[in-house]
């Protein structure tokens, strides 16, 4: 099992971060992609320490919430992208639910990052919330080919548009929620060779721990539910996702 999206620098892990990492390993998590979207000294130090674990890889991006601070973080962000264990740019994208940064700024900063990713030939981890049309038009105009729509919550038609661009679609805890009809339906139409899974921890804990702090070891509940919905074994699904991770992130 691989967790393709974990925010392990979050302060909610300050008391037991190494325990959380150990628990993931003991549960059978073979790789974790740790997402860095904070550029304060503390978070960057934790991130570097996390990357010392063989099985933890990194992604760095300016989150749409912080698009307004792009110029402030730009230099350090570009430096971090050069670290040897960085396998993707992200998360980046658009979030019109929380307009922490104005939409115009979010769009400009998203476009810039897609440009940087294509110059560096890095895959992109995309966050899109309540910004369907703008996100799709920026993405399709960018010519980006290697990307994943992270924590996908859209409808079937939207998923198909991204599949047509060659993208991967990633599902998180909501696929396990009792009342979540949409992701349970949408995951069924995602071809095996385009599917990824993630916790997006510390957010969105799966149904069994809903509302609590999430962590990479809980990815097993997401694999169990996804395997069930796709009518295959967890082992088979784990093999499929590992292959997809290798194709997209090269690890
Ligand atoms: Zn995230």
Give the helix/strand layout:
Blueprint: E1 2-6, H1 17-27, E2 31-36, H2 41-50, E3 56-60, H3 70-81, E4 86-95, H4 103-120, E5 124-129, H5 132-142, E6 147-149, H6 156-164, E7 168-171, H7 181-189, E8 195-197, H8 219-230, H9 234-249
Helix pairs in contact: 4-5, 8-9
The site of zinc ion has 5 residues, from loops.
Keywords: Hydrolase, Metal-binding
Binding site for a divalent metal cation 2: 127, 150
Binding site for a divalent metal cation 1: 5, 7, 91, 200
Please explain how this structure is put together.
The protein is an alpha/beta fold and 251 residues long. It has one domain: TIM Barrel (Alpha-Beta Barrel). 43% of the residues lie in helices and 17% in strands. It has helices spanning 17-27, 41-50, 70-81, 103-120, 132-142, 156-164, 181-189, 219-230, 234-249, and strands spanning 2-6, 31-36, 56-60, 86-95, 124-129, 147-149, 168-171, 195-197. An 8-stranded parallel sheet has the order 1-2-3-4-5-6-7-8. 44% of the residues are buried. The mean pLDDT is 97. One of its GO terms (molecular function) is DNA nuclease activity. It holds the Pfam family TatD_DNase. A divalent metal cation 2 binds at residues 127, 150.
């Amino acid at each position: 099992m691989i967790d393709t999206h974990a925010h392990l620098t979050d302060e909610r892990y300050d008391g037991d971060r190494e325990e959380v990492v150990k628990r993931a390993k003991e549960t059978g998590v073979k790789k974790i992609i740790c997402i860095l979207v904070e550029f304060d000294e503390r978070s960057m130090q934790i991130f570097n320490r996390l990357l010392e674990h063989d099985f933890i890889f990194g992604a760095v991006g300016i989150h749409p919430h912080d698009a307004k601070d792009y110029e402030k973080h730009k230099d350090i962000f570009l430096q971090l992208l050069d670290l040897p264990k960085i396998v993707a740019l992200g998360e980046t994208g658009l979030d019109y639910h929380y307009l922490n940064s104005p939409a115009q700024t979010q769009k400009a900063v998203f476009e810039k990052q897609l440009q940087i990713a294509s110059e560096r030939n890095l895959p992109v981890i995309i966050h899109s919330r309540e910004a369907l049309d703008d996100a799709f038009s920026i993405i399709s105009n960018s010519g980006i080919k290697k990307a994943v729509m992270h924590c996908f919550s859209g409808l079937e038609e939207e998923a198909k548009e991204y599949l047509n661009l060659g993208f991967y679609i990633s599902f998180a805890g909501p696929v396990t929620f009792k009342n979540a009809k949409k992701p349970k339906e949408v995951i069924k139409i995602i071809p095996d060779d385009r599917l990824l899974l993630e916790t997006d921890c510390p957010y969105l804990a799966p149904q069994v721990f809903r509302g609590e702090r999430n962590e990479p070891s809980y990815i097993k509940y997401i694999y169990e539910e996804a395997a069930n919905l796709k009518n295959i074994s967890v082992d088979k699904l784990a093999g499929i996702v590992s292959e997809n991770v290798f194709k997209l992130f090269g690890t």
